[in-house]
Amino acid sequence: MSAHDELIEPRPQGALGRFRAFREERPHLFLLVLMMLVAFFMMDPRTWVVLTISGLAMGAMVFLMASGMTLTFGLMNVLNLAHGAFISLGAFAGATVLVHWLNGQAGEASVWANLAAVLPALGFALVVAGLIGLLFERLVIKPVYGDHLKQILVTVGGSIILMELIQVVWGPNEIPVPRPETLTGAFLIPESLPVIGGVALEKYRLVAVILGLAVYGLMTWVIERTRTGVLIRAGVEDREMVEVHGYRIRLLFLGVFVAGSALAGLGGAMWAMYREIITAHMGDELMISVIVVIILGGLGSIKGCFYGAVLVGLINLYVGYLEPRLAAVATVGLMVGVLMWRPQGLIPVIKV
Amino acid sequence: MMQRLLSGDYPRSRALTALLLIIGVSLALGPFLFPGVRAFSMLGMICVFIIVVASYDLMLGYTHIVSFAHTMFFGIGAYGVAMATDAFGNGYGAVLAGIGGAVLLTIVLSLLLGLLSLRVKAIFFALVTLAVAFAFLSLVTQLYNLTGGEDGLAVRVPRELGPAFRPFDEPWVGFDVVGFFSGLFSDPGNAFKDALFDVRVNGRHLVYYIAFASAVAVFLFLLRMVNSPFGRVLQAIRENEFRAQALGYRTVFYRTAAVIVSAVLATLAGVLFALINRYVNPENTLNFELMVFILLMCVIGGMGTLYGAVVGTALFLLAQNYLQDLLKLLAGHVEKGSMLAELVGPDSWLLWFGLLFVLSVYFFPAGIVGQLRLWAARRRQRRAGNGGARRDGVPAQGESHAS
Fold first, then answer.
1. CA distance A172 to A311
2. The CATH number of domain A43-341, selected from 1.10.3470, 1.10.10, 1.20.58, 1.10.8
3. From A344, which residue of chain B is nearest by alpha-carbon distance?
4. What pLDDT digit, counting tens, does each position of A195-233 carry?
5. Could you tell me the pTM of the whole model?
6. How many CB atoms within 10 Å of residue A41?
7. What residues of B are in contact with residue A169 (Cβ under 8 Å)?
8. Among A5, A81, A283, B111, which has the highest number of CB atoms less than 10 A from its own CB?
9. Which residues of B touch A288 (CB under 8 A)?
10. What is the ipTM of this complex?
11. Top CATH class, B2-167+202-372
């Protein structure tokens, strides 16, 4: 195949040619590097480092929320606009564990006591969102497979119901969420290092970046190295062909949907600890970032979703620093720009 | 006459005709039938939202385009008037300038939106409009020196459209329908006399009737439009886009046109909203929740039937205003503090409407109007199919017989 390509189009020569090839073949990296460079020249390097790390942290959390939605769309052509409700659900479930059940541990200074509070909180968020996701798929989404209009309507309705139920269970007010003691505060880069010495990095953001990367790694591993992953990828590409081979794609889809909801819940719980205050409608606001991310990345693509999330996180922080009022506009502007440049998104998987 | 006015698209159901007549008469004589500020403002909102929902139906019901930016255009209209009167004072020139600017912005934005996302895939349109509407909302909230931010803007309407303008010295007589019927039970003798009340006609009634006339005009215009060749092409695109394309129609052009018409009408509704409400803020014009409400009204009333917009709007706004009272009454009978009390509490009316919405998408995809028409059609078929059998006392067999 590649030899054939070379016959038609010789490898690009010269710096400009190579640059063009890079732009066309790796648009996600091109955009990422471009954005970081532009930002780098518009602010001082130390601010830039802080903002970049924060942007990565936000990107990591948004990735957790968006990955499920992009996969459900890619695999089963299901557009789940109730995804935001699962983000809220995870946030409230996580907060419940932190606030009510394990209040003591989160306040203590020891790392282990903190972990004993955070891990159950994240786990509980994961489980609750996953279980409700299972119910939601069976009750709400299953009857409307293959009908986009009805999916949009039904999931918007489902989102209203879920958010109202959250308000029934947890009350209509905002809930403050304590951030574990060891994760508050910042981590100082030693003064001796050149350029970035003395920069303070918030610990929680570093943790978010690490967790996000871990989930991305795990997901990539599942998708690329395991049998389930092969089936998922095949299903995204051609659902009927997988069915013809005797696999029950509905079951696979159910699994992906539950996992996606659970990850949205995990992201929501992370976000709750990051923002330290939650409302039932926080999912609606985050949905916008999620939607921008999945359109940027290309519907159905995990890799695209990851880079899209990082781009959204970075542009939010950069623009938020330069002109706070335009952060949301810049995010959507990025999406519009990418849509005009590449209507299928940065790393398209499914044919649009 | 009726044929021309309704463009040959009759309600086609006796119950629906009756319902529409009730709504029409209530709106036409509204200020003289229902006393009180709350009822008056609700009637005004029904007129405004009939325009919003009917124009939304042109996209959603007739072309199957899901847009989440309808409130954005609504907000552009409302803010256009508010900002223009804020800057140039309360003359008619300022209002017209606001309308002109708003319509122009709407046309440009909707054209861009249509060309940008309808080209790719229909489903993108929903996502892109959602994101763009959100960006617009955040822009309006952030640019507070221009738009008043979260606090919003008071609209300075011309004097003739405000409460200070009194064209008649004598109060007119109104007749409280609800009071009359409840009076019939409690005190039949004086029910008629008690139901009479004074209406002091002022500028707000004038605005109300402008809104009412606009609602009727827009409704008839849309009815004309969907029953014209243009509307038929939209419906063809809805049923099978590929085939419409194969027949030689430039579907992107038609879709974009539908989006623009619908957006401009929403802008006009926003203008009326600003004049009636005399106060705009992001909460009452641009909120995502408002968008969901519009979707709910459209679907519960019946997608793809403009009459559904009227029925859905009236029903929804009635519920929004009075269902909470009903739920409060219900909550009084349930013990306090339990989960059940929360479920039927007045704050959770939206939960029940969401449930109704989802169920109606599953079981009555054509909404109230579609269901009424279906029943009427079945009855007609039964009558035509085995009218003879019925006279003999044999029950009808349903539509399978007739077809």
1. 33
2. 1.10.3470
3. B120
4. 666 667 777 888 888 888 888 888 888 888 888 888 888
5. 0.86
6. 7
7. 339, 342
8. A283
9. 130-131, 134
10. 0.82
11. mainly alpha
